[in-house]
Amino acid sequence: MSIEKTEKIRAFGFVVPALLWTVAFFVIPFAVMVVLSLAHLEGRDVVQTFDLGNYVRIFSEPSLVKGIVVSLEITFVVTIVSVLLAWPLAWIIAMQVPKKWQRLAIMLAVLPFWTSYVVRSYSWALVLGENGVVMQTLIGIGILDEPIQIMATRTATIIGFVHFFVMLLTLTIYSNLVQLSPNYARAAQDLGASIWNTMRLVIVPLTLPGIMTGAFLTFVLCIGDYITPQILGGGNELTMPQLIMLQLGRRGDFPMASALSIVLMCIVTLAYFASARWLKMERV
Amino acid sequence: MRILSWFYLALIFGFIFLPVVVLVLFSFQDSRLPIPPFDGPTLKWYVNVIGDRDLMAALANSLIVSLISAAVALTLGFLAAQGLSRIHLPGSVAMRGLMIAPMTVSYLIIALGLLNVFNSIGIRPSLWTTGIGHVVINLPLCFAIIFAAMGDHQKNAERAARDLGASDMHVMFLVTAPMLMPALLAAYFLSVTFSWDEFIIAYLLTRFDVTLPVEIWSMLRSGLSPATNAIGSLVFLVSVALLFLLEFTVFRKQKT
């Protein structure tokens, strides 16, 4: 056996444990899920059939169709608002804050990351509640006469999500911005571009990889999250993850939960292909 | 422009910190509801929380699961990166893709997949099954971070060590691992953090022994309470303290 060949076998030996783990606990569960999504529930028992009944139901039963629509609407709004809020923040930290304070500024900007995820949603429930700080303040300074309901609406879900993803996007956009040479902006301005045009035509396009990477992560994490809509949005408008958990909890309908999960996964895959040409994960 | 910048900075920092400030402030609330007006300060909720046996058991469970699952993910990820970076194997690209794949799938879906499998072969939910799930989500992360950190100078140093007669084990522990220390630490701490804070996998894959996020979740069911604020603030303060400790020890050294 050649040295080259023994080297290869040895290298492969290093990879085997991780591969086995991934196959056993990721690939096989996924395959099981696909098979199970073709089964259906009779009474409380799962009967293995091979038809697309669950998928037909997902796209015809109003409550399930609505789940997909609600999830997509929330996710799109959250992604766009988060990008719009995070970009200026990242830009100010990268360009206006003195170099030696930048690391501290970024650490501060993402500090609430370090609260536990469940607790963060709970905190927003405190803030946005009928007797919470925001309502009390607005009533106190005379803007409102009585509290308006934000909790248990879509608005609360969106605020909770935006809070989390502004931090994430600030990180990806900032790390993109600091890699840009200041010469781009200088050149544009020397050639007579206004500050506004420099931003719009030079700096923003150059940060597209950072924006798209962050936006993709936002999309994936947002559409798959159960906690935030469950704590803040309540039960009026269910998102896809809430519907999945409902199938599991109330009825033990594993086939339907599996089918919904696969639809969710397909949506994420579509989002990936839509943004793939800008995704440069290694640059962020 | 400057004034506008500072104004925006103040506004957005206000938004970012609002829930954290409210969380911490009302953990010192004297009455039973964590809403204004503030009538503290008192430490009774902290005493309450630290004396809560279920909560402390959950905290210990979370620590165990996160430290161990992160160590397993790190080991597997390190070995795989080592194997895939050293030599070009047939199917290298496919193997890399497979290793990274779980990163793009929602935790809920990974949890449901594992639950299906464990149900069908009769394995009961426990901290072990949760740990397995956490390795699945952290392995791609560890692999990607370590793989990205392995460069040519790495390979040269390893080759030099081997030419000088070091065994595989020696090369790995005396050359590769020390050179990759910053990446290894970053991968480990990120994995611990993700596992520590992970909810949905732990929720679906535990039953009697639960982790901290699941225990906090069940506290929420009984409504708003300053006790929830207290445990939330406690976890936050410990995480931030650890973060600053790391920043000023490990990662400071790495830069010089």
Q: Which regions of chain A contain 5 or more consecutive residues with pLDDT less than 50?
A: none
Q: Helical element count of chain B?
A: 13
Please tell me the overall pLDDT of chain B: 89
Instruction: Work out the strand percent of chain A.
Output: under 5%
**Which word captures the global form of chain A?**
globular
Q: How many helices of chain A?
A: 13
Layout of secondary structure:
The complex is a heterodimer of chains A (284) and B (256).
Chain A: H1 3-37, E1 40-42, E2 45-47, H2 53-58, H3 62-95, H4 99-109, H5 117-128, H6 133-140, H7 154-177, H8 183-190, H9 195-206, H10 208-223, H11 227-233, H12 240-251, H13 254-275
Antiparallel strand pairs in A: 1-2
Helix pairs in contact in A: 1-13, 3-7, 3-10, 5-11, 7-10, 7-11, 8-9, 10-13, 12-13
Chain B: H1 2-25, H2 44-50, H3 53-86, H4 92-100, H5 107-120, H6 127-149, H7 152-163, H8 168-179, H9 181-197, H10 200-205, H11 212-221, H12 226-248, H13 250-255
Helix pairs in contact in B: 1-12, 2-12, 3-6, 3-9, 3-11, 5-6, 6-9, 7-8
Describe this structure in words.
- The complex is a heterodimer of chains A (284) and B (256).
- By secondary structure, chain A is mainly α.
- Chain A has a single domain (64-283), classed as MetI-like fold (Orthogonal Bundle).
- Chain A is built from 13 helices and two strands, in the order αββαααααααααααα.
- Chain A has helices at 3-37, 53-58, 62-95, 99-109, 117-128, 133-140, 154-177, 183-190, 195-206, 208-223, 227-233, 240-251, 254-275, and strands at 40-42, 45-47.
- Chain A has a two-stranded antiparallel sheet.
- In chain A, helix 5 runs parallel beside helix 11 (227-233), helix 7 runs antiparallel to helix 10 and helix 8 runs antiparallel to helix 9 (195-206).
- The longest helix of chain A has 35 residues, at 3-37.
- The two termini of chain A are 43 Å apart.
- The mean pLDDT of chain A is 89.
- Chain B has 256 residues and is an all-alpha fold.
- Chain B has a domain at 60-223: Orthogonal Bundle (MetI-like fold), CATH 1.10.3720.10.
- Helices cover 77% and strands 0% of the residues of chain B.
- Chain B has 13 helices and no strands.
- Chain B has helices at 2-25, 44-50, 53-86, 92-100, 107-120, 127-149, 152-163, 168-179, 181-197, 200-205, 212-221, 226-248, 250-255.
- In chain B, helix 2 crosses helix 12 (226-248) and helix 5 (107-120) crosses helix 6.
- The mean pLDDT of chain B is 89.
- Chains A and B meet through helix 1, helix 3, helix 4, helix 5 and helix 7 of A and helix 1, helix 3, helix 4, helix 5 and helix 6 of B.
